[in-house]
Amino acid sequence: MTAVGMAMERGYEVKRVPIIIEKRALTEEERTLGFWLLNDGKPLNMLEQSEVIRRLLNFGWKLKDIVKRTGKARGYIENLVLLIEAPTLVRNYIIDGKISAHTVIQIMQALKGDAAKVIEAVEEAILNAQQAGKDMATPKHMKKQKESPAPSSGKFFKWSEALYDLLVERKDIDKVKLQVLETLMSGFENEKNPEEIVKYFIDKAKSAQQPAAKPTKATKKPVKK
Questions:
Q1: Quick check: pTM over 0.90?
Q2: Which pairs from 89-93 meet CB under 8 Å and 24+ separation?
Q3: Which of the 8 DSSP states describes residue 10?
Q4: Whole-angstrom Cα distance, residue 75 to residue 63?
Q5: What is the residue-wise DSSP string for 21-81?
Q6: Digit-coded pLDDT (tens) for 34-65
Q7: How far apart are CA 223 and CA 215, in angstroms?
Q8: How many CB atoms lie within 10 A of CB 55?
């Protein structure tokens, strides 16, 4: 019921809950972890993943335990922790789709988590995006900070530029929009190469283009007189 509780906390209406009878009773920690790793529905976004991390930390887990059990890179988990530490107002901006989670992470890194400065920088990025006619603020809408960027940021943009060059000519993936940024971030932190990420987008586009199976018509049995 952990997943249901998290959904209801976010204001979703839950009308019914499928139940699977387990051979062995799972601990609350295992259920929480399974909500992320064993979820066969819509993948959790970065903010939802950070909520799982928060619950695991509250159970007394260490970062090294979470890294080992999830199979995620430590840098990726540390970025999710930054989202946990973000001010509530900023987290609400992410939920409302006004700014991407990755942009908030970069701001948190640059400003060392200073809550007042983070809120100011986030709201400035949102305003810049609105003035540019965009609904969601992304890293390009951030004001350049005087603080040094995160050590991996230069390498990340070089990596993402190579990835962009491979994707830009492919018209079959033009519709992939909202999840691109988080997919890139996840791929980078988990040390995926550009070719692997391109294959992910291509496979996703092909899956979306497959026509739905037509329902078979029931054959009518002759009526005996």
A1: no
A2: 89/119, 90/118, 90/119, 90/122, 91/47, 93/122, 93/123, 93/126
A3: T
A4: 10
A5: --SSPPPHHHHHHHHHHS--SSPP-HHHHHHHHHHHHHTT--HHHHHHHH---HHHHHHHH
A6: 878 777 667 888 999 999 999 999 999 999 99
A7: 24
A8: 20
